[in-house]
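Lab notebook: predicted structure, single chain.

Context: the supervisor wants predicted structures on file for every construct in the current expression panel, including those that have not yet been purified. This is the next one on the list. No modifications to the sequence; it matches the entry in the shared construct table.
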Amino acid sequence: MPDLETLLRDVKPAPNPAWALKLDTRVANRFPTPPSRARRAMISVGEHMLAIVASVAIAGVMGVIVIAGLSGAGGGDEEPASAGGSATSSEAIPEMSEQSSSGGSAGDSAAPAAAPESLQRDARAVKSNTSLTLSTTPDRVQGLTNRAITIVDSLGGFVQSSQIDQDGSRRAIATLSLRIPTAKRDDGLARISKLANVQSRSQETEDVTDQREALEAAVRDARADREGLRNRLAKATTDKERSRLRALVNRSSRRVTQAQRQVNELGREVSYATVDLEIRGTRRSGEAAAPGDRWTPGDALGDAVRVLEVIAGVLMIVLAILLPIAAIVVLAAIAARILTRRRRERALEVA
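Prediction complete. Output recorded below exactly as produced.
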């Protein structure tokens, strides 16, 4: 029977030369103590420094792209508000506050109001209503509407209502009701008339000075009645008489408020001139396109640049989405590699 030791030596496996060399080296070094966890982490960081730097660079580029995109989106010019479809806009004008006295005689309350009332009588109260019609091509109606609104805003006026009706590419009509300060009415009409060809213009004025004076006189009379009732209420001696006078004072105060509201409404109508603007865009059948309506090589170049801008924007958004994902994948791969290496080192230490 052959020797068992001889048989085992014949069938023993041959170790990996690299592993055998590493084991012999550790034996020659008397199995040195393995590095601490912190030192092993530093060694791993050093070995993977290139990947870490690449990940940080990718994250930095991504941040720069996102910041540049946000800055470009927020710094664009704002176009004037359009008056498309059946949009209707209105602005409220602050109402004049009622000037009522809280005590004293009627003569004392009328004295300080004498000076401003005399100034008001010197100025005529005139209501103005102007109708203006402009003619242009259908494709320019929207732009001219926006420009007219911009002019009114610059003069301190407001748009009471606006509407655009468009029928294909051959007809478009914009109807606007504008309120312009009376002192700037002529300037506003001149600037709006330069936007396109004036097809028609009419103006109506109405002198409402007598009506204003009558309303102001009604306010003064109502205040005088209220002051008289307040004086009687202060001298009343019985509860029944006080209750009756309080009801009369409340009724008189309502009359004062109503009369003052009528004066304020008339003042608003006088302070702001009404301009009914209509912009008509029509194109006759067979009519040649205007020079500005033709598609020229310059327009083609502009469209091409616009398409490239859109493509660049889409690519920027895609990069902003993919770069963080790529950075996460790279970091996960590095972490998996470090973990695998540590497990192998532990297995060798146990062996």
